[in-house]
Amino acid sequence: MLQNTISDGVLHVADPEPAPPPPLIRLRGLTKSFGPNTVLNNVSFDIPEGRTTAIIGPSGTGKSVMLKHIVGLIRPDAGEVLCFGTDMARAPEPALYAARRRMGMLFQDGALFDSFTVGENVAFPLVHHAPQMSEDERRAKVNEKLALVGLPGTYERATASLSGGQRKRVGLARAIIMEPEIVLFDEPNSGLDPITSDAIDQLICDMKQALGVTFVVITHDIVGTVRVADYIAMLYRGDLIAWGPTAEVLRAEHPVLRAFLQRNLILPPAGGSGDARLPAVQ
Predict the structure, then answer these.
(1) Which pairing describes strands 182-186 and 214-218: parallel, antiparallel, or unpaired?
(2) Residues 6+ apart with CB under 8 A from 198
(3) Cα(first)–Cα(last) distance of the chain, in Å?
(4) Does residue 262 lie within any of the structural domains?
(5) What is the pLDDT along the chain (282 residues), one digit of tens a residue?
(6) Residue 123 falls within a domain, yes or no?
(7) Residue 155, domain member (yes or no)
(8) What total of structural domains would you count in the chain?
(9) Which residue, 4, 116, 153, 198, could crosslink 120 as a Cys pair with Cβ 3.0–4.6 Å?
């Protein structure tokens, strides 16, 4: 399993795998416009199974629209999105429902119910999708996932009392409660301080190691991207301008990609070798 690390301001990026694992998600010619605005323009790439793929790019470049296509919430104008072999663009509702059951989602703001306890929030999918489970079985499963995200013993805690980082952790526990094969993250570091953001990045890495599931992360956090991502896809004005292993993307020559990444990193030479670095604190 790949693992990128940060040490003394240097981002040590794992060498690319000889070949990526088989794709669990495949995008082919994905195109979507809203009126005259083309948000996704003939986008094609694979998301490998059991790895973390980060989708990056400036605001308004189609990242969240792509995420909605992956879960089948909107239909493209052209192209296809295959998840588990199901075409999420054209599948009938029962097939879409079956595919979504195999996915978990961590929303940008956590999307928790403040009137529920922490445990009730995490248990919510079980109540609706696993009604055969007893209350004791649900509670045991919820406590297991809360421990996994570093929040043991919080089942009865009031959700409204949680910090931003704790809300993200509860949201992640809920996202994995049905033991999905794919977990989608929408801006997991949004609104967090740097220390909490680092903790969420480490949690994503730990979850990948512990669960072996496929993670897809929509993010603006470049340092976090390099830390958690095995593969990176970058969108710019609706076009896919880069995709590949993290180490290769950091050395790619596309000027827009390099300008975007260099706002937060000191990159190795284009086409060369070496690790990325964090800028020195002034």
Answers:
(1) parallel
(2) 224
(3) 35
(4) no
(5) 456 777 666 777 778 888 889 999 999 999 999 999 999 999 999 999 999 999 999 888 889 899 999 999 999 999 999 999 999 989 999 999 999 999 998 887 668 999 999 999 999 999 988 889 999 999 999 999 999 999 999 999 999 999 988 998 999 999 999 999 999 998 888 777 888 888 888 888 888 888 889 999 998 888 888 888 999 999 999 999 999 999 999 989 899 999 988 877 777 888 777 777 777 544
(6) yes
(7) yes
(8) 1
(9) 116
Helix 118-129 with 135-148: angle, nearest 10 deg: 120
Compute the radius of gyration of the chain from its Cα atoms. Answer: 19
Which residues form the domain of 140?
109-179
C-alpha–C-alpha distance, residues 89 and 236, integer Å = 22
* Chain center to CA of 224: 11
Residue 108: other Cβ atoms inside 10 A: 16
Judging by DSSP bridges, how do beta strands 78-83 and 86-87 pair with one another? antiparallel
Helix, strand, or coil (residue 4): coil
* Nearest Cα residue to 166 out of 146, 194, 180: 146
Tokens of 141: 């499963």
Report which residue type is found at 116.
Answer: F
* 3-class secondary-structure state, position 90: coil
By residue count, the chain amounts to: 282
Residue 225, in any domain of the structure: no
